[in-house]
Design a protein that fits this description.
The complex is a heterodimer.
Chain A (H helix, E strand, L loop, with lengths): L1 H19 L11 H12 L2 H34 L1 H14 L8 H8 L3 H25 L3 H9 L4 H38 L5 H10 L3 H29 L4 H7 L1
Helix pairs in contact in A: 2-10, 3-4, 3-6, 3-8, 5-6, 6-8, 8-9, 8-10, 9-10
Chain B lengths: L2 H29 L8 H15 L1 H32 L1 H16 L5 H9 L3 H25 L3 H9 L4 H38 L5 H10 L3 H29 L1 H10 L2
Helix pairs in contact in B: 2-3, 2-10, 3-4, 3-6, 3-8, 5-6, 6-8, 8-9, 8-10, 9-10
Classes of the chains: A mainly alpha, B mainly alpha.
Chain lengths: 251, 260
């Protein structure tokens, strides 16, 4: 328990020492105490929490749209051989297009506000979800499907009772990946096109030469990412407590 | 349907549907061109004029160079650090919170930091790309080394294999399927960060070209850049799969035989 704590303290002490001793110039990196002090004062600042809220708003709406589109489409494409074969090549071509390449398009069509951010977030987080859902559906144990069929379960019932539950572990992984991607795109949109949120605050602090606050905001953004990681992992564990992959983790 | 007919029909669908989609976009943009969605033929024409090969040397090449440099640095550092952390549980526990935190920072948030510390030149972009690509490879290397079959380790010890031999002949090969999984994730991140870093601060590169085209309302040029990025992403992925299949041929073979 002590080692991780010691390592963090050591790293912060090193940061402080390197700057105080003049090894790196204070014009590019402020001392740790300065940046962290600023971070604590940010916690009491309503403008900061508003920026966090704006970033999370883009993250949540975009991810929600991606989930609402990606999972049903994945179930559909994954459960039909023909649909899968027909759409495999277009999906493989569209998927690796870096969503950031669409930033200029988003600006043209949606302007510089929340809509652009949501569009980029949704586009980027759609693909991992779609692909994971398709894989999940295709990985359903054939014995389970055949058993269900011989018990006379119809197509719809098989979908709800066999296919969807078996695909849930894959979908959960997809959501975890998409959530991280969504945050990246939300911050990118704020940074590059100036949509309101943490990314824009960081850029404003940089151009204003307010290094303490820039570093504090970067650390805060990292904390937001960390919290989201923890939340999605915990959510996955909760939903999948019955699944073998999680049983080892729980003990 | 006979299996053979079925196979041919499926192949036909796989080829025909994408072509039909392409034709539909072609026809739609040609009949009702709008300012934002110019005719596809225009985009192809600009693509030919721009990227084959007038601006290839001035914009595409610097982008690719930065991307591969950053990617290569990341893979080397991550595998080295991964071996160190993977073989020492104490070290791993001690650094866990730092690793978890650093990898949670959305990478674009580090661009302002890199600009302040390194400047706006090539170094900054290479740093950002390397920093981002580091984490998937590092975490997968650690996992891969942790997951090595104990029998394999014991066998190596019994035969007195240690030091460099053990690293190069036992540890790294055994962890390589996971390392490759991390490298594949990183490759797509490298392309994304290449574009972002060029959009924020650059004077050349594909990302710069796309954003500049949009700002000067050169819409077909903008689309040609987006198309190029799509093609690059697709080709990188394809090339990586081919390399992975070759390097890990033994692994696939081994798995297939144990799975019956």
């Amino acid at each position: 328990m002590l080692a991780p704590f010691a390592a963090v303290v050591l790293l912060l002490a090193l940061w402080e020492l390197v700057v105080r001793s003049g090894l790196v110039s204070e014009t590019s990196i402020p001392p740790a105490t300065g940046a962290l002090g600023e971070l604590f004062s940010l916690f009491g600042d309503s403008a900061f929490w508003a920026a966090v809220g704006q970033t999370l708003e883009g993250w949540a709406i975009g991810l929600g749209i991606a989930i609402a589109l990606g999972i049903p489409l994945g179930l559909l494409i994954g459960s039909s051989r023909w649909a899968y074969r027909a759409l495999r090549a277009p999906i493989e071509f569209l998927r690796p297009i870096p969503s950031v390449a669409l930033i200029p398009l988003a600006v043209l069509i949606y302007g510089q506000g929340l809509e652009s951010k949501v569009f980029l977030v949704a586009f980027a987080s759609f693909w991992p979800l779609l692909i994971q859902t398709i894989y999940g559906v295709q990985d359903v144990d054939p014995v389970a499907t055949d058993t269900a069929r011989s018990f006379g379960l119809g197509r719809r019932e098989r979908m709800w009772r066999i296919t969807v539950p078996s695909a849930v572990p894959y979908i959960a992984t997809g959501i975890r990946i998409s959530s991280a991607v969504a945050l990246i795109l939300a911050v990118t949109a704020e940074l590059v096109i100036g949509a309101a949120g943490l990314g824009r605050e960081i850029n404003v602090a940089r151009s204003g030469g307010d290094l303490n606050s820039m570093y504090a905001l970067i650390v805060a953004t990292g904390l937001v990412g960390w919290a989201l990681n923890l939340a999605t992992t915990a959510g996955e564990r909760r939903v999948l407590h019955w699944h073998p992959s999680q049983r080892g983790v729980a003990t | 349907m006979k299996p053979r007919t079925r196979r041919i029909a499926e192949l036909a669908v796989e080829i025909a549907v994408p072509l039909m989609i392409l034709a539909a976009i072609f026809a739609w943009t040609a009949s009702t061109p709008t300012f934002y969605f110019p005719p596809l033929s225009d985009v192809f024409e600009r693509f030919g004029n721009t990227w084959l090969f007038e601006r290839f040397g001035s914009d595409a090449w610097p982008s690719l160079r930065r991307m591969f440099l950053g990617y290569a640095i990341a893979v080397v550092v991550a595998v080295a650090a991964g071996v160190a952390l993977g073989s020492s549980p104490t070290l791993r526990r001690a650094t866990a919170p730092i690793v978890e935190f650093l990898r949670s920072i959305p990478p674009p948030a580090l661009i302002p930091f890199a600009i302040v510390v390194i400047g706006i030149g090539d170094d900054m972009k290479v740093f950002i790309i390397a920093f981002v690509c580091l984490w998937p490879v590092l975490l997968n290397t650690i996992d891969g080394i942790n997951g090595i079959d104990p029998t394999l380790k014991d066998t190596a010890r019994v035969y007195g294999i240690s030091g460099r031999d053990k690293l190069l002949r036992v540890t790294l090969p055994a962890a390589s399927p996971q390392i490759f999984a991390g490298m594949r994730l990183s490759l797509s991140l490298a392309l994304i960060l290449m574009v972002i870093s060029e959009m924020v601060a650059s004077t050349n590169g594909i990302g710069f070209f796309v954003l500049q085209s949009q700002r000067s309302f050169a819409i077909p040029e903008m689309w040609s850049g987006i198309l190029l990025l799509g093609i690059l992403g697709y080709l990188f992925n394809l090339a990586f799969l081919i390399i992975e299949r070759r390097v890990l041929a033994w692994h696939r073979g081994a798995r297939a035989s144990t799975l019956g």
